[in-house]
Amino acid sequence: xxxxxxxxxxxxxxxxxxxxxxxxxxxxxxxxxxxxxxxxxxxxxxxxxxxxxxxxxxxxxxxxxxxxxxxxxxxxxxxxxxxxxxxxxxxxxxxxxxxxxxxxxxxxxxxxxxxxxxxxxxxxxxxxxxxxxxxxxxxxxxxxxxxxxxxxxxxxxxxxxxxxxxxxxxxxxxxxxxxxxxxxxxxxxxxxxxxxxxxxxxxxxxxxxxxxxxxxxxxxxxxxxxxxxxxxxxxxxxxxxxxxxxxxxxxxxxxxxxxxxxxxxxxxxxxxxxxxxxxxxxxxxxxxxxxxxxxxxxxxxxxxxxxxxxxxxxxxxxxxxxxxxxxxxxxxxxxxxxxxxxxxxxxxx
Length: 349
Ligand code: FES
Ligand SMILES: [Fe+2]
Description:
By secondary structure, the chain is α+β, with helices and mostly antiparallel strands. It has two domains: 9-122, Rieske Iron-sulfur Protein, CATH 2.102.10; 149-348, Naphthalene 1,2-dioxygenase Alpha Subunit, Chain A, domain 1, CATH 3.90.380.10. Helices cover 15% and strands 33% of the residues. It has helices at residues 159-167, 172-175, 278-300, 314-331; strands at 2-3, 13-19, 28-33, 36-42, 48-52, 66-67, 72-73, 80-81, 87-89, 108-109, 111-114, 117-122, 149-155, 188-196, 199-206, 222-228, 232-238, 243-254, 257-266, 305-306, 343-348. The chain has an eight-stranded antiparallel beta sheet, with helices on one face. A four-stranded antiparallel beta sheet has the order 3-4-5-10, with no helix packed on it. The radius of gyration is 22 Å and the shape is globular. Bound molecules: FE2/S2 (inorganic) cluster (FES) and fe (ii) ion (FE2). Fe (ii) ion binds at residues 171, 175-176, 289.
């Protein structure tokens, strides 16, 4: 059983911040992540950066200020900060008033752009540690490839409920009832799972239970799903000819707001024909997941314990164990030891 009031957000780990295209050169975007106000910017040269969105002078969010493509200027007294958060100018100082401006630097965050996404390293404020692993990659595509589509939906819940919902294999026939997706009939599912870097992998297998749409990519596809902490999932569907990969990321904004981003990468030459209808399909699909989470929030006000059953909740159990171990190995300053064991899981869905 899992106590739902056990709220902690993993630190010293990379989180998906936003798709790269959401941050244009010379522009700023303010976003709360893990309860921290973060200011993202992109210089006119194209370099992305992130810093704490609070002016060290009188705490006005820097995002209310101006950005000239090089430096951010606070809207209150015009203090200026470069892309590394270093204070470069205090306009009220006279020429003979020397001051060590580095005392007023703003905390900056490491960011990384990979495959059309901007990731941010959320270090622990008291015990920052270097990254234990790199930003997860979408398999089979280079670092410069961007997703065909990126869609973000906000879930009004604590991050664990979004992550667990995302990997839950048993909800599909009940939650995702759409004419273009599977119906409500249940099938036996038997799949091998293996431990993988800070997560687990559903071993590559030939798909049998095909929804509409899979035939479009030519032949019966193979499928492999990989989960990474803190809440990243890639699902790779491949045939001899083509590859379609879904990247889904879960990012906590606050303790009860979570962004879920759904992206697709593919090498389908005719894929552009699908593009106009994709936002509608994704909105409908993710909306079903969000709607059930909204209903769950009603019950969670009254119930503080959740039950996890074998085998359909084993992935959820692993998620909680992985998270706990990631937390614990940092405190103990030791290697991460995966709690996941190679295992054959069976469920009906
Ligand atoms: S509050 Fe930012 S410069 Fe004064
Ligand atoms: Fe779902």
